[in-house]
Amino acid sequence: MLDLSTLLTLEHDGWTALCENRGGAFYGELMTPEGRMVLVNGMVLGRDDVVRSLDAALAWDTFEISDAELIRLGADCAALVYRARATRPGEPPFIALMSSTYCLIGDHPRLALYQQTTITH
Q1: Rg of the chain over CA atoms, in angstroms?
Q2: Is 121's pLDDT higher than 80?
Q3: What DSSP element (H or E) covers 27?
Q4: Residue 1: what pLDDT?
Q5: Which residues pair with residue 78 across a beta bridge?
Q6: Helices (H) and strands (E) in the chain, counts
Q7: Distance CA 15, CA 31 (A)
Q8: According to the model, what pLDDT value does residue 120 have?
Q9: What is the arithmetic mean of pLDDT over 58-83?
C-alpha cells in the first residue's frame, strides 16, 4: 500500500487539488491529526493551520513532479522524495525538493510530515 505508485498518485492528487483550490479539504483528509508541514518560508503548520492556509491560498496553474524516490521507514511508514516545479501567473516558477512521509493508518496512507526545500542557484 505504501509503494512508489500509490504515494506518487497521492502527491499528484494533492497538487491537482492545489491547482483547483481544493487543497484545504484534500490535505485536511490526507494528513494525520498530529501531522505537520514544514514550508520553505520556515513555517511549521499543524493540520488545522494547513487547512486554513490552503483555503486562503492562490491556486497553482501548473505543476510537474520529477525524480521521485521511495524510502521505506518500516512496515507501515515510507517517505516520498521528489522535485517539484509549480507556476502561478505573474510569478517566477516555484522549484523545490519535497519530502512527504506517509504512515498507514488502517488501510489508508496518511501524510504525517511534509517538508519543502527550495532549489536556489
Answers
A1: 14
A2: no
A3: helix 23-30
A4: 84
A5: 72, 102
A6: 3, 6
A7: 14
A8: 67
A9: 97
